[in-house]
Each structure stands twice: as C-alpha cells, then as structure tokens.
C-alpha cells in the first residue's frame, strides 16, 4: 500500500460517518501520488498524514428566538483546518444539510484553493444547520447574533476570517459583523463580503461567478475556443450562478438554464438583459423561487429536477457546463449525457459538484475539466483583496479589483498547468491544482518542524 493509500484508508476508518470528507480526501490525495516520489522529505515528516487532520474543530450550541417567542436550538461549526500559510479563511454555510463531514470537506478543499490564489490564507470553513429560507429578517438577525455570540472568541483578523457561502450573503454578513463589532468594540477586517459602506470590497459579490468565467475562458483558449456563441448550462440561481450568468453574457455566450433546490427552468432564448435583472430581483430582493421566473416568461419548468437531470432526460445539448449550486449535483449518468451531447468543458462554480465517477467520465471523453478549487477561487481571492484593503484602510476601484481578479484567475490556470506538467500529468488541471496548492502548504509545514 502506498503512503497515500494508507492515509485514505485511515480517514475512511476514522471518519466513516463523513462521506463528503472522505470523497474530498480521496480526490485530493489520489492526485498527490506523483509528489510522493519527488519529496521523500514530506513522507518522512508525515505531511500527508498531518494535512488531513484539522488543527481544531469547534462545535457549539446556537439558541435563538423566533418572532413568536419560541426558542430554537441549532448547531454551529467552525473547522480551522490549516493555517500554515496564513490566517484561516473560508466561508460560513447556513443550510439544513450542514454537518461536521460537510464542513470538514469544505475546509479541507479550502486549504489548497487558498494556497493556489497566491495570497497568504490558510483553510477553514464553518456554518450551521440553520435554514434561512422562510425566516423573517428579524429572525435571521437574531440567529446571526446568537451564532456570533460564540464564534467571536475563535476568530480575528490575524486568526480566522470567515466569509459567506450557501445561505450566507450580504444580509447575514452585515448582522454578524455588526454584532462582532459591538461585543469586541473593534472595527476590523474579521469577516469578508462586507457591505461597501463598512469595509467591503468592490467586485466581492461578483468575484466567484466572474472568476469562474475568466477561468473557463482560459481553459477554452487552450483549444482555440471562446464563449462566443456557446450554449451554457448554469445550475443554481444564488450568488455564484447570478454573476456567472452575467459574465457569460458579457463574453457572448448564452445561458439557457437556472435552478434552485425546487426545480429547473429552461430558457432557450437565454437569461439576459431584463430577464437577468428579474432573476436578480427574484432571488435577492423577493427571495422567491425559480418557478416564478418560468411563470413570468411562460417557459418550461421541471419541478424536482436538477439542470443535469433535464439535460439527461430531454437530451438537451450544451457546449459548456457550469455547476454553481451544491456538492455532488453531477453524477455519472449526467456526465455521460453531457459527453454524448457534445459538451466541451465543465468548470465548477460550486464546491465538489461532480462525483468522482462523473470526473472519470469527463476524462474518458476528453472534456476540459476545471476543478472547483481552481475555477471558483475568485471568491476567496477577492476576499483576500478585501483583507488587504482593510489592513491598508483604503478602497480600490472596481476596475482595479476586477483587473487583479482576472490576473489571479489566469495565474491559477497557468500554475495548475505547469504543476501538472512538472509532475508528469500534463493537461490534468485537477491534479495540477491539487499539487500546486499542496506544495506551498507542505513546504511551510515542513519549515515549522513538528507542530
Ligand atoms: P447561494 O445560497 O447564494 O445559492 C445557492 C444556490 O444553489 C441556490 O440557488 C440554491 O437553491 C441552490 N442549492 C443549494 N443547495 C442545494 C441543494 N442541496 N440542491 C439543489 N440546489 C441547491 O450560495 P452560493 O451561490 O454562494 O454558493 C453556491 C456554491 O458555490 C456552493 O457550493 C458554495 O460552496 C460555492 N462557492 C461559493 C462561493 C461564494 O463566494 N459565495 C465561493 C466559492 C464556492 P435554494 O435557494 O432553493 O436553496
């Protein structure tokens, strides 16, 4: 058994109730195999064993009161996975499915993603099994206060800097930051994704979606292609999906799908112009369902189906797939349908949206594949830029931040390709991203000795 196989086996045994974490470890570790031979020093220092174990995990009670005065109890998490190259950094997710395994998978991925951005950020992630859907603003506020009442003692601008993720957007960051500021009496860059008036960065809301499309454009360019005239499938309709759609439109592509956890709309004319504005209003102001988009424009709506189910069942052809909803949304049969219908590229806006079997299908069919930790790193990269602006106490213009984002996405693409080539897996962006992200963290861990 190789060192890598031993590490995976141990995680499978120790964390058997954490399937998403096991999946993420398997994906990353398998692609690190070529580093073992070249770096006996990592093997000797047990870096592979150490990197799958979080620095610490905090689990806490979050009691809060609804509008009727009834008390509810949720569970809060913060996994501080690895701070070898900078303060822990990673989002907070509020969704009923949140559990330790999901937060650990996200925190683990974040280590390599943050390293790839080239900025000094370690990996962490957190959240709660709280469901913000259907709650009043006041209820969300009371929950966020209760969550921060415990979280504040574990974070800090040089320690751990959380941000948003599923279910945590500008509203939630505002409430959490306001409460942190109140109890610490400090106005400091402890969260990113803040409003512009109180320390946020321009382009942060757009960053993950824009970055994803910039990255995909780099992938396409290696085959002499671009977005112009391409038909694109985007899943989800939240923060990442919304700005991915906008940027695809800027680049001359046409997005024909959007979805939420209830169903999928097919808009063959493309989600653009006034229709994109309506989507933004529907999801961010009204907090409504994607079904209402289908109703307004009299379009086909598929209740209970994901974008990938619809592509598979209806035989719809797309050139490019950008999954932007959640983990494990594209299974093997979905990937086979994409391949059969001539899809040329899949780039992941969401974290781990493709199962390991689906990734195999992309490879077998020569589909260009942009793995999440490279393709969606634009969000955390601009969070890093928000931290820089907070430390310097100044704000960059929209153009400046956008230019830096584009540069970072190009760099990530180049770095991943170079690492893949150097380690004998040329053209494999998944392996290249994992290897490049890993090397920097591993070298830092080595420098610290045994801590
Ligand atoms: P949002 O909460 O803004 O949007 C999430 C979207 O995905 C919604 O349309 C939601 O539908 C849908 N969705 C969520 N869970 C499920 C599910 N279990 N099944 C089907 N659909 C689901 O989140 P974000 O856009 O911020 O995040 C989307 C993905 O991108 C996540 O994987 C996240 O980790 C990743 N990501 C986000 C970054 C960011 O900067 N925000 C950075 C990097 C990655 P509904 O409204 O019905 O729940």
Describe the 3D structure.
The structure is a single chain. Helix content is 50%, strand content 15%. It has 451 residues and is α/β, with parallel strands linked by helices. It folds into 2 domains: 185 residues, Leucine Dehydrogenase, chain A, domain 1 (Rossmann fold), CATH 3.40.50.10860; 159 residues, Rossmann fold (3-Layer(aba) Sandwich). The strands form 2 sheets. Strands 9-8-7-6-10-11-12 form a 7-stranded mixed β-sheet, sandwiched between helices. The protein has a 5-stranded mixed β-sheet with strand order 1-2-4-3-5. Helix 1 runs antiparallel to helix 2 and helix 9 crosses helix 18. The radius of gyration is 21 Å and the shape is globular. Bound molecules: NADPH dihydro-nicotinamide-adenine-dinucleotide phosphate (NDP). The site of NADPH dihydro-nicotinamide-adenine-dinucleotide phosphate has 23 residues, from helix 10.
The secondary-structure class comes to alpha/beta
CATH superfamily of the largest domain: Leucine Dehydrogenase, chain A, domain 1
Radius of gyration: 21 Å
Oligomer: single chain
Strands of the biggest beta sheet: in what spatial order? 9-8-7-6-10-11-12
What is the beta-strand fraction? 5-15%
Count the strands?
12
CATH architecture of the largest domain: 3-Layer(aba) Sandwich
Return the domain count: 2
Question: How many strands, what sense, and barrel or not for the largest sheet?
Answer: 7 strands, mixed
Helix content: 40-55%
| Shape estimate | globular
CATH class of the largest domain: Alpha Beta
* Ligands: NADPH dihydro-nicotinamide-adenine-dinucleotide phosphate
């Amino acid at each position: 058994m190789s060192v890598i196989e031993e590490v995976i086996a141990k995680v499978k045994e120790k964390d058997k109730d954490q399937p998403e974490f096991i999946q993420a470890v398997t994906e990353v570790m398998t692609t690190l195999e070529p580093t073992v031979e070249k770096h006996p020093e990592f093997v000797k220092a047990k870096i592979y064993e150490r990197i799958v174990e979080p620095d610490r995990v905090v689990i806490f009670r979050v009691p809060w009161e609804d509008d009727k005065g009834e008390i509810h109890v949720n569970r809060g998490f913060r996994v501080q996975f690895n701070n070898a190259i900078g303060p822990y950094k990673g989002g907070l997710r509020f969704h009923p499915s949140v559990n330790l395994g999901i937060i650990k998978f996200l925190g683990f991925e974040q280590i390599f993603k943050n390293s790839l951005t080239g900025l000094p950020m370690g990996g962490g992630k957190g959240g709660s099994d709280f469901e913000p859907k259907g709650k009043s603003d006041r209820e969300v506020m009371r929950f966020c206060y209760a969550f921060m009442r415990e979280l504040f003692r574990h974070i800090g601008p040089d320690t751990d800097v959380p941000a948003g993720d599923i279910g945590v957007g500008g509203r939630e960051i505002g409430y959490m930051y306001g409460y942190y500021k109140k109890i610490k009496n400090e106005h400091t860059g402890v969260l990113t994704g803040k409003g512009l008036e109180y320390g946020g960065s321009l382009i942060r809301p757009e960053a993950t979606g824009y970055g994803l499309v910039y990255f995909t454009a780099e992938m396409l360019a290696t085959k002499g292609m671009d977005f112009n005239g391409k038909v694109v499938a985007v899943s989800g309709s939240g923060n990442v999906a919304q700005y991915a759609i906008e940027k695809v439109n800027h680049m001359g592509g046409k997005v024909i799908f959007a979805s939420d956890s209830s169903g999928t709309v097919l808009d063959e004319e493309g989600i653009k112009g006034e229709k994109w504005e309506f989507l933004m209003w529907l999801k961010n102001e009204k907090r409504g369902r994607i079904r209402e988009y289908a109703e307004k424009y009299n379009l086909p709506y598929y209740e209970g189906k994901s974008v990938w189910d619809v592509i598979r069942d209806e035989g719809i052809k797309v050139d490019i797939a950008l999954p932007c909803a959640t983990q494990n949304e594209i299974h093997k049969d979905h990937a086979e349908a994409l391949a059969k219908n001539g899809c040329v590229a899949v780039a992941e806006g969401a974290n781990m949206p493709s199962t390991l079997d689906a990734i195999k299908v992309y490879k077998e069919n020569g589909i260009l594949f942009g793995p999440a930790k490279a393709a969606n790193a634009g969000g955390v990269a601009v969070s890093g830029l928000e931290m820089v602006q907070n430390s310097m106490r100044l704000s960059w213009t929209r153009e400046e931040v956008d230019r830096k984002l584009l540069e970072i996405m190009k760099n990530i693409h180049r770095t991943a390709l170079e690492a893949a080539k150097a380690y004998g897996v040329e053209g494999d962006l998944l392996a290249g991203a994992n290897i490049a992200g890993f090397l920097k963290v591993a070298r830092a861990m080595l420098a610290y000795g045994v801590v």
